[in-house]
Design a protein that fits this description.
The complex is a heterodimer of chains A (983) and B (150). Chain A has 983 residues and is an alpha+beta fold. Chain A contains 25 helices and 30 strands. A six-stranded antiparallel β-sheet of chain A has the order 8-7-6-11-10-9, sandwiched between helices. In chain A, helix 7 runs antiparallel to helix 10, helix 11 packs across helix 14 and helix 11 crosses helix 15. The relative contact order of chain A is 0.04. By secondary structure, chain B is an alpha/beta fold. Helix content of chain B is 39%, strand content 14%. Chain B is built from five helices and five strands, in the order βαβαβαβαβα. A five-stranded parallel β-sheet of chain B has the order 2-1-3-4-5. In chain B, strand 4, helix 4 and strand 5 form a beta-alpha-beta unit. Classes of the chains: A alpha+beta (983), B alpha/beta (150). At the A-B interface, helix 20, helix 21 and helix 22 of A face helix 1 and helix 5 of B.
């Protein structure tokens, strides 16, 4: 460089020939040249630039011209950053600046660079003769740091993405924060057939601009757009450097230069053969696409691909989980439907069978009775199985809700066990029940406990042929322990682990019967675990088995839900009899036995009860003539069965579907409707809805019949307005009782309604007579006073005339009062005729009328346009008449009266207001405003009956709206109202 | 023989109201003869020539019949029904003149083809104005149905 300096002809420069340079300059130049560190000197008033070898790469293509050039001219493009430091140095102050972003035009374009540099003044005897300017270029370090940050941000932000699209959006959002490296980015995803690319997200460009089309075909290459079809087909990245040619000039971010180049990367997640999408990334116009920049893009594309793959994996995982959940729902639904399908025929089997067996007038011969008993027993058994299955589906669906009640568990367990005594003893076994009283109540769901005990007993009985069965209940302070021990065949050790699995049956086990589904013990385990307990088994082959159930005492283990809940409407409990009857039948001599085990409690099981004859109660129907029951069921057998039951007391019309039922009910409203839920055409819910929507049938009680033993169905039915819900199979007594109850309730309700209607009629009659009879005497008072005044005025003195005038005024006033009271009573009855109305027009009419009555008043009235509401036109006009009338009245004394009617929107509700600048009122009396006859001003001051606002309030509240007022004395009043849910 | 019907029949049970109505017509310069009967039965007797009016020539029908609604025994609407049901009086102009502004009364009156339904104002000055217009309209402007000669 020394050579260059020496070889240059400095004669024509402001410094003059080298020989003439002052000593200070020479010394500094030689110091500068001796350094390897990039240094530049700026000398003299013309800021001549002299630099060393280390500095010239900074000059780029400016070198060698830049040698000896005016520093301010050479680095003009950097001036915004360095100008101030330069100027300060000239005044003698050293400046040091670090990692400054400077846009240099050293290679024919503005380039984004970073520098750390200082300017130090070089003094001679005249002051600052030049500047010492050491420089370090930090561009590559700064860019590298920034790009590392971009990649880090990208991976941290998109790790939250749950779908591919979301990953694209998050990535685009993150990347658009870095326009210096990525002036624009576009994320495209390809459709499944790779026919079309869709723009998911972008940054730096508007959505769906020329350079960011929302959709691109992947089938035909489009030379005037991104080469996505090429990228999709080859899976290779493409460099596009003719953006102006493709899209016309466009710029991004802070740089005015038109974008020139971009890279298009395929996004091909691992495991995918073809790209799922593409990333288009703009190349900065102020950075050279060198190796590091290019490798940054490669890393970027790789990171984006990874994020996409992660999101895709997440999405697939979720879809899988959803599919599984769907299968699970379908299964539950299936169980529920199966229960429906089974229960209907079961009811129809059990009902008639029980009726037949209970027939005492004409008993069957023993042989035929036996056959029927077999059928009956097996029906019960089938019902028990269906119920067990349903219990499972409920537990699995998480819908089994235990109803924990404090229970005397010892007494209850003894009671349950006693069901089996007869069968066990008949089999020649010893039955021991050791349940000493427990010190405190245990929280269990009684139905569930019953199933636990009975299933264990049933299991023991099935596998025990000699010896004993022992039921023991022990208090263990923090838990109770139920053991059911038998001396039966025992269970091979190898089978023990799978014993509680559903449908698992011990192969080849000796037992009283081959019947069984293998769900009894599985159900026991589920029920015990719902109680937060455990069930264990110890068994030895040929010695016997002992099942131990432990349940915690106290309440701490229970869910935080209330300890007592209303009982589920629908019970799947079959009660002990079904178990015991089944067990009895396993005994060899069962055929001869007609004996039923003793009932542990008053029989109220859904099925057992059906055995009782339908009690034709002696109670006579409420009214003369039999009450009418409309029965809708598509199952002919069910229809006949229910009809037979009801026909003893009621007149029954049985129809096969909802539409027929609806037509019949509309023609002759029945006293009660019994309807199946699942019916062709109009189902039970639909029928219920239609009945409740029809005026004439609205009050008719509806009982739904369903075979779906699920509490949701019951809740759904009751929510839909059903009066009751019966689950098949139901007993005859249960059906009769519910029908009777609802007929009674409906009867009472009808009487009550009649009373109400009666008193309403009386009220109407009263106001009618007020309307007629009070006016006539008033008219007479007024009329005759007037005649006196007219015809006898000469004979009356002034005082008498004055008195008569007051009589007339009072009569007229009374008349207004009567009208207002009648109006008030009228607005509270009669139907609302709701329609869309614009309040603006009636408000203008009201004001015109007020003006007409009072032509001398000059009131500035402002009524907003388009005050549309859904309301009763007549009543709303009355509201406006009163509110605007009040405003008109109370502004009488204002110097510049103003009234405004408009609407403001507060959140969801439109709030209408009538505002005046009249006398106002004291807010302390605001609560009296809407009370009839309450006035806040003297009548002599402002006329009125004090009923107007009461009428307004009635009307507003009939529209389910609200009215209130704000005011201050002499500061005007504003009445606000809303119109409730119609808006 | 041409015979101009120009009588006003007033069916009104309240003496005060009857007198006020008469005076109002008088004051409004409606000078037509006013026949006042005290209830619905008497009104029908007058129109159909029965009872105390057995000797009346029923071809001589009033130009307009003013009916109160709320009367003992036979209400104004019942009288109206009877008028509309009888061949002889089917076309007779009938005006309900009443204190009642109840929807139910108006509906009943129009259902039975009343010609007009007028509210009696309590304010006597107003009442006089109403009487004047009533007289002008029914006595002067309105052409009655042709007289029956049967």
């Amino acid at each position: 460089m020394g050579e260059l300096i020496r070889s240059m002809d400095w004669t024509n420069t402001p410094l003059g020939p080298v020989d003439s340079w002052p000593q200070s300059l020479r010394a500094t130049v030689s110091l500068c040249l001796a350094s390897n560190f990039p240094i530049s000197l700026v000398w003299g008033p013309q800021h001549v630039q002299i630099y060393n070898d280390g500095y010239w790469p900074i000059c780029g293509e400016k070198h060698p011209y830049s040698m000896g050039q005016d520093f301010t001219e050479c680095w003009a493009s950097a001036w915004p950053v360095i100008g101030e430091a330069f100027a300060r140095a000239l005044t003698g102050e050293t400046s040091f600046l670090e990692d400054q972003r400077i846009f240099l035009d050293r290679y024919g374009y503005l380039e984004e660079t970073f520098f750390t540099f200082s300017f130090s003044p070089i003094r001679d005897e005249t002051g600052v003769a030049g500047l010492f300017h050491p420089v370090t270029e930090t561009t590559s370090r700064m860019l590298s740091e920034r790009r590392t940050r971009i990649l880090r941000d990208l991976s941290s932000c998109t790790s939250k993405a749950q779908t591919e699209e979301e990953a694209c959006r998050l990535a685009a959002q993150t990347l658009s924060a870095y326009p210096f490296d990525l002036p624009f980015v576009l994320f495209y995803l390809f459709d499944e057939k790779a026919e079309r690319a869709r723009l998911i997200a972008g940054g730096g460009l508007a959505h769906d601009s020329a350079a960011s089309p929302a959709f691109l075909s992947l089938l035909t290459p489009d030379p005037s757009s991104w080469p996505l079809s090429d990228v999709a087909a080859t899976g290779q990245a493409r460099y596009v450097d003719d953006l102006e040619l493709r899209f016309g000039p466009f710029s991004c971010g802070d740089y005015p230069e038109s974008q020139k180049a971009a890279l298009v990367f395929p996004l091909t997640p691992p495991g995918c053969k073809r790209p799922r999408g593409a990333l288009v990334a703009g190349v900065s116009t102020r950075l050279a696409l060198n190796e590091t920049y290019r490798s940054f893009y490669d890393l970027l594309a790789a990171a984006a691909t990874t994020e996409l793959a992660n999101a895709r994996a997440y999405e697939e995982e979720r879809r899988r989980a959803e599919a599984l959940a769907e299968i699970d729902r379908a299964k539950t639904e299936f169980f529920s439907n199966v229960s429906h399908e089974f229960r209907t025929p079961l009811t129809l089997m059990l009902g008639p069978l029980a009726d037949e067996l209970a027939e005492s007038n004409d008993p069957l011969p023993a042989a035929r009775r036996e056959r029927l008993e077999t059928a009956h027993r097996n029906s019960l058994r089938l019902l028990k199985l269906v119920n067990s299955l349903l219990d499972f589906s409920r537990i699995e669906a998480g819908r089994a809700q235990a109803n924990y009640e404090p229970t005397d568990l010892a007494a209850y367990t003894v009671e349950l066990a006693s069901v089996f005594r007869s069968a066990v003893e008949k089999a020649g076994l010893t039955f021991a029940v050791n349940c000493d009283a427990l010190p405190e109540a245990v929280y269990v769901d009684r139905e569930m406990w019953e199933k636990i005990v009975l299933n264990l007993l049933s299991n023991a009985f099935k596998h025990t042929f000699e010896g004993s069965i022992t039921v023991t209940l022990r208090w263990r302070v923090d838990h109770v322990e139920l053991t059911v021990a038998d001396t039966g065949v025992g269970i091979p050790a190898a089978e023990l682990p799978r014993l509680f699995e559903r449908f698992h049956r011990v192969k080849g086990a000796k037992s009283r019967t081959h019947e069984g589904t293998g769900i009894g013990l599985a159900l026991v385990r589920e029920l015990v675990s719902l109680h937060g307990g455990q069930v264990n088994i110890e068994s030895q082959e040929e010695k016997g088995s002992t099942f131990t159930v432990t349940i915690q005492t106290g309440t701490n283990h229970l869910p935080s839900a209330p300890k007592r809940k209303t009982r589920e409407l629908v019970s799947t409990a079959t009660r002990g009899t079904a178990y015991a009857e089944e067990a009895l039948h396993w005994l060899p001599n069962a055929a001869e036995s007609n004996e039923l085990p003793p009932h542990p409690e008053p029989v109220n099981g859904a099925v057992a009860r059906i055995g009782g004859a339908v009690a034709p109660s002696g109670a006579s129907p409420h009214r003369s003539g039999r009450q009418k029951v409309l029965l809708a069921d598509d199952n002919a057998d069910m229809r006949d069965y229910v009809r037979r039951l009801l026909a003893e007391r009621y007149e029954v019309l049985a129809v096969p579907d909802g539409l027929t039922a609806l037509a019949a009910a509309r023609e002759h409203p029945p006293d009660l409707v019994l309807t199946d839920i699942m019916m062709p055409g109009l189902d039970g819910f639909g029928l219920l809805r239609e009945l409740k929507a029809t005026q004439s049938t609205r009050g008719v009680p509806v009982i739904l019949l369903s075979a779906r033993a699920g509490e949701e169905s019951a809740v759904e039915g009751l929510n839909a307005g059903a009066d009751d819900y019966l689950t098949k199979p139901f007993s005859a007594q249960e059906l009769m009782a519910r029908v009777r109850t609802h007929l009674d309730i409906a009867h009472a309700r009808r009487e009550w309604t009649n009373e109400l209607e009666q008193s309403n009629k009386q009220l109407e009659a009263f106001s009618y007579s007020v309307s007629h009879d009070l006016r006539a005497p008033l008219r007479a008072i007024d009329g005759f006073s007037k005649m006196l005044l007219d015809d006898y005025s000469e004979k009356l003195d002034q005082n008498a005339c004055h008195c008569l005038q007051r009589v007339r005024t009072a009569a007229q006033k009374m008349s207004t009062l009567i009208n207002d009271i009648l109006e008030l009573s009228r607005v509270t009855r009669g139907a609302l005729k709701k329609e869309r109305i614009d309040l603006t027009a009636p408000a203008r009419d009201v004001v015109a009328e007020l003006q007409g009555k009072d032509p001398l008043r000059n009131v500035a009235v402002e009524i907003s346009d388009g005050l549309t509401v859904t309301a009763d036109r007549h009543l709303m006009t009355m509201v406006l008449t009163n509110l605007l009338g009040n405003a008109w009245t109370y502004t009488a004394k204002a110097s510049q009266p103003q009234i405004a009617f408009g609407c403001s929107n507060h959140g969801e509700a439109n709030v209408f207001y009538v505002r005046d600048n009249g006398v106002g009122f004291d807010m302390a009396y605001a609560d009296k405003l809407f009370v009839p006859f309450q006035r806040l001003h003297l009548e002599s001051e402002f006329e009125g009956t004090g009923i107007g606002l009461a009428i307004v309030q009635q009307i507003i509240s009939r529209h389910r709206g609200r009215i209130w007022a704000e005011s201050a004395v002499d500061a005007g009043a504003t009445f606000y109202f809303t119109l409730g849910e119609f808006q | 023989m041409m015979f101009e019907t120009h009588t006003i029949l007033l069916v009104e049970d309240n003496d005060d109201d009857a007198e006020l109505t008469a005076r109002a017509f008088n004051r409004a310069n409606v000078k037509n003869p006013l026949v006042r009967v005290r209830d619905g039965q008497e009104g029908m007797d007058y129109l159909f020539g029965s009872g105390t009016y057995a000797n009346r020539d029923v071809r001589d029908m009033p130009a307009v019949t003013l009916l109160d609604i709320n009367m003992p025994k036979i209400s104004g609407v019942d009288v109206l029904k009877a008028i509309r049901a009888d061949e002889r009086t089917r076309h007779l102009p009938v005006v309900i003149l009443t204190s009642s502004n109840e929807d139910q009364d108006r509906v009943n009156a129009y259902t039975h083809f009343v010609n007009s339904y007028i509210l009696k104002p309590v304010d006597y000055d107003q009442f006089v104005k109403v009487a004047a217009q009533l007289g002008l309209y029914w006595m002067v402007l309105n052409s009655p149905p042709p007289r029956r000669e049967a």
